[in-house]
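Please check this chain.
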Amino acid sequence: MANVSPFTPAVAESADRVTVHAIAPQRVVRGPGALQAALPRLQALTSRPVLLGRSPAMAPPRQALARQLHLPDTRQLLLHHDCCDRDLLRLETTIRHLQADGVIALGGGKVLDAGKLLAHRCGLPCVAIPGSAATCAGWTALANVYSEAGAFIYDVDLARCPELLIFDHQLVATAPARTMASGIADAMAKWYEASLSSGHSQDALVRQAVEQARLLRDQLLLECEDALAHPGGAAWRRVVENCGLTAGLIGGLGGVRCRTAAAHAVHNGLTQLAPCRHWLHGEKVAVGILVQLRLEEVVGGQPLAVVARDQLLHVYGKLGLPTSLADLGIGELDAARLDVVCRFTCREGSDLHHLPFAVTPTQLEEALRFCAQPQPIPAQVPQPVQPRR
């Protein structure tokens, strides 16, 4: 938040450390009509694919694609839950039985994650076709695994990004506006998390990723209202691509420490509570950013975190994003539920520990309580907070 950060990097960097980056899909086809334009590339990549989906809302484009590819019903596979182990095992067995030579995933972030993970396990190429701009899951070499009930369990680093990403503006435009607002929050989190966890990095790629995250945040703040007000317009096109593509590139360049920190760790903790699970990923991340800013203010001693929080509250109000835990249905935080969230968020290996300062469960509990009830939304947008240096 401030021009000068008092924080010391949580993990010292080594000048001779070898790192491996899965930066981007091999091919990205984007724009209106991208799905039709990409069919020759898709068919050259796989001749016996399976087509993975879940949502009834995405059934029409799935069926249209299946007809174009002449896929029989046996090769159209449906998830029964979010990306969960039982579904993955069932579908992996089916894919191997069918002797498929590729996985096409068309839908939301959890469908895309499942498709990437199945392709990874079966050693097959993956084609990702996002149905919305709610996440950058179509880009990344990462998959999140949930319980059958929808609670986050663990994530998996994959060997590579999808071989082909098809980002069709006409398909994305069919998604509810809520999904784009969710994607905006998730994409903006790249800056709030990466600048804190990696702002002092001396690694060239990481520094580029952090700077790109700052630019991404600024562009989204400037254009998010115009994009929502004018679907299909120039601002809309830039915003959906920022959410679905650029945010993924930042994680690819910078690696895990440029992907997630406290905001996503809080998201993962909140999924342990049933009332939160029907909210979109980015909506929970939006509240997670506010919790992280409270931790920065109180634990990290960053007074400008208050300015950043006021700025976000104003933007959230304009976008219809949740501004508190109460908006997510858990305003009344009893000790048992708080304990569940805090224990999971603070567990060993949590993204929370990418912060450059230690956070205890008690400190996290205070931050959650602070963000439990709606905060007053500022009438005026505060001045943008300058990047950390």
Residues 27-172 form a domain with the Rossmann fold fold (CATH 3.40.50.1970). The longest strand covers residues 102-107. The chain is about 50% helix and 10% strand.
